Amino acid sequence: MRKGLTYLGRNISRPRVAFFEFTSCEGCQLQLLNDEHNLLDFLDLFEVVAFREAMSSASGRYDIAFVEGSISCSEEVARLQEIRSRAATLVALGSCACFGGINQLRNRYSDSGWPARLVYGNSTIPVTPLPEVLPLHALVEVDLQIFGCPIHKGEVERIVTNLVVGKKISHPKYPVCMECTAGGHICLFELGEPCLGPVTRAGCNAWCPSERSGCQGCRGPAEVANLEQLEQIFQKREIPLEVLLDYLECHGGFPEWSARLRKKLAPATAHNQP
Amino acid sequence: MKGTTDISIQHLTRVEGHGNISIKVDGGKLVHADWEVVESPRFFEAILVGKSWWSAPSLCGRICGICSIGHTLASIRAIERAFDFEPSEQTRTLRLLLKHMETLQSHILHIFFLAVPDFLGTGSLLALRVTRPEVVELAARLKKLANDGADLIGGRRLHPTRLTVGGFTKLPRQDLLVTLQQRLHQARNDLRQAAELIQSFTFPDFQRETEYVSLKGETGYPFIGGMLLSSDGVVREEDNYLEMTNEYLTEQSTAKWSRLSRDSFAVGALARLNNNGTLLHPGARAMAESFGLLPVCHNPFYNTVAQLVECLHVIEDSELLIDRLLASTWQQPRATPAPRVGKGVGAIEVPRGILYHSYSLNNQGIITAADCVIPTSQNHANIQHDLTKLVAEAAASELPDNEIEQLAAMLVRAYDPCISCSVH
User: Fold this and answer.
1) How many domains does chain A have?
2) What mean pLDDT comes out for the span B194-220?
């Protein structure tokens, strides 16, 4: 029998937690299993009632439902609504759930039926793709978002621990650039490389730029983010704005900016299917 | 004589992605046993059209959370071959080392978290933390080693940050490579313990001879590029992968299926062992022999054991690769290849079998067409044929329904399917 949970001497109950995935690579759930030194302590915070990737059996109501993935076919809509109806708190886990993620890149084509025709021709398949890939909040109320592609385990543990003990949860308002600078890493712009660090919400500890890989904005915009200024940086460094668009649209976190820039760059990047 | 049995498993647990098993048995006779894939397609082949060459590897890594390193490497290889670019020896060595860390990550995840619970009569490895803590600790230790190795070489456990066309954005610290090598060496003992545990399991007695497809090893057990080989004697160039994969559509699956010389073939650890077992390092080869896997094994349940053998092989190989890296001075981490019009194919042995990426690019390096053929999609038809035979035999011997259900689930799990990957 496990001991009861306490926080600052106060007893708290172990929430019934469930994990679900929709259209995704399941990498975010894998990240949850990927911090071996404190995995068991982390899991001890909950009563895990559904985690299809790691265990058999599932049932009932959930205090917290973690949902990975975007919604991309009609069969998923009812399943998401069912999970919502059983969950007191629904957490969108990762960029696909928060913004549509890489999957929403198919939304950029003017003919929404083309991707399915390219892959399946006119054959019948067992699911019905939606015209557009959607983030969870487009269909149900989302109580909390955990950003990232993939999610950052340390951040998840902090957020989830706060959720369980009833502490306030807040995301950083400043951009990745500040974390990168504080870490003393070489600025990618100095190397002539593109980066969305100046406009992307921090919290990942500059995961990609610290490895000399430009930030692709998987965590969405920081509270104060200036696209005009970012465009100027790209132009000053002679990085094509088409590259900026590629980065902005990559995870779906900057939909308005991507749309505006795509329009500005048209017809070069009209993204009409061949 | 038993009556009618209907078994329906919706969203099979302890596999990656969404698949269903549907079985009907009537009076000890099989009516049908179907493996259905109901995963939502993400249309990666469409997503890639119009994207620049440099964005493909990190996009394609997102095809799969478990084998993101393999997808990234296959994507890079396809582009580098389209540009006729030959990576440096340092880059090739580091890529193979990173590949090995993924093999270890993925195989350990499958062996312990997905497969072992069936043999120890539990629904989850985590349930064993009270009754068999040593098993949970062993799994966690090996998985952490693989994850730390992937962090060190690739920058992170999944969706690697350092891999790029032309090389690496950053190189690992040499002193940390030494530490990794020591830990890998110590892990040989952990794998021996794992082998003892698995020796104590009773595997279902099931055989179905099939065709096995993999890369063809020349001087070593193959992982990255080279000739393609089937156990029925088909040999093809990497560029002619379509002659090996022959994908087709089926109504029971959003993933395509494949066939070659017969109705189906298998890829993965067991296929690699069957095709290239003589090229294993000595420790791995001895382990394969101790399980009776060599020279050939036709029991798909032993794919899990073949994965364990490969864990030891990649550890032995990684130690040698690190020796090689430590014996030379660091060269520039990356070069920048020049884009050109063309087509490139990258074939990589990823944990679940052989993976192909193929892209056509225009003169600005924009992708005009893309094709990804995933190991699990190549396995789907073989899973179906195994399932049919397995259930027919189980029904004929009048096994109770719950045992048939358990066997069917275990069979699919043995293939370690990566379903979202297979639909992509």
Assistant:
1) 2
2) 97
Q: Check if A68 contacts B (Cβ < 8 Å).
A: no
The candidate with the shortest Cα–Cα distance to A204, out of A135, A149, A251, is A149
* pTM passes above 0.90: yes
Host domain of residue A78: 5-165
User: Is A115's Cβ below 8 Å from some Cβ in B?
Assistant: yes
CB of A243 less than 8 A from some CB of B: yes
- Which position has the token pair 């620049």? B52
Q: Residue A36 and residue B141: Cβ atoms within 8 Å? A: yes
A159 and A191 together in one domain: no
The answer to whether residue A171 sits within a structural domain is no
pLDDT, one tens digit per residue, over B2-52 is: 678 899 998 898 888 889 999 999 988 999 999 999 889 999 999 999 999
Handedness of CA B253, B257, B263, B266 (dihedral sign): negative
CB-CB under 8 Å, A213 with B147: no
pLDDT tens for each residue of B138-168: 999 999 999 999 999 999 999 999 999 999 9
Partner-chain residue, chosen from B13, B40, B143, that has the shortest CB–CB distance to A55: B13
What's the mean pLDDT in B352-373? 97
Give the list of residues 6+ apart from residue A272 with CB closer than 8 angstroms, or none: A109, A110, A111
CB B105 within 8 A of CB B154: no
Query: How far apart are the C-alpha atoms of B77 and B343, rounded to whole Å?
Result: 11
Determine the pLDDT at residue B175. Answer: 97
In angstroms, what is the C-alpha Rg of chain B?
A: 21
Q: Around Cβ B242, how many Cβ atoms within 10 Å?
A: 14
Which is nearest to B154 in space by CA: B246, B57, B22?
Answer: B57
Spell out the residues 6+ positions from residue B315 whose beta carbon is closer than 8 angstroms to its own: B100, B104, B184, B185, B187, B188, B191
Considering the domain architecture, whether residues A64 and A89 belong to the same structural domain is answered as: yes
Here the tokens at position B285 are 């080869």
Using an 8 Å Cβ cutoff, are B371 and B356 in contact?
A: yes
Q: Which residues of A touch B125 (CB under 8 A)?
A: 54
pLDDT score of A58: 52
pLDDT at position B375 is 98
Q: How confident is the model at residue A202 (pLDDT cuts 50, 70, 90)?
A: very high
Q: Which one has a higher pLDDT value, A86 or A8?
A: A86
Q: Which of A140, A165, A190 is the last residue in one of the domains?
A: A165
Query: Are B254 and B39 a contacting pair, CB within 8 Å?
Result: yes
CATH number for region B44-423: 1.10.645.10
Residue A115 shares a structural domain with residue A28: yes
Burial class (CB in 10 A: 0-12, 13-18, 19+), B258: buried
Residue B31 has a CB neighbour count (10 Å cut-off) of: 14
In B159-298, DSSP assigns E strands to 163-164, 167-168, 211-215, 228-230, 235-236, 265-266
Phi, psi of B378 (to 5 degrees): -70, -25
User: What is the C-alpha to C-alpha distance for residues B85 and B82, in angstroms, rounded to an integer?
Assistant: 8
Q: Are residues A16 and A148 in the same domain?
A: yes
Residues in chain B within 8 Å Cβ distance of A119: 41, 43, 45-46
Q: What is the pLDDT of residues B224-247, one digit of tens each?
A: 999 999 999 999 999 999 999 999
Residue B94: name the closest of B311, B281, B325 by CA.
Answer: B325
User: What local confidence, expressed as pLDDT, does residue A43 receive?
Assistant: 78
Do A142 and A195 share a domain, yes or no? no
Residues 51-110 of B with CB under 8 A from A: 51-52, 55, 58-59, 62-66, 68, 109
Q: For residue A1, what pLDDT is reported?
A: 41
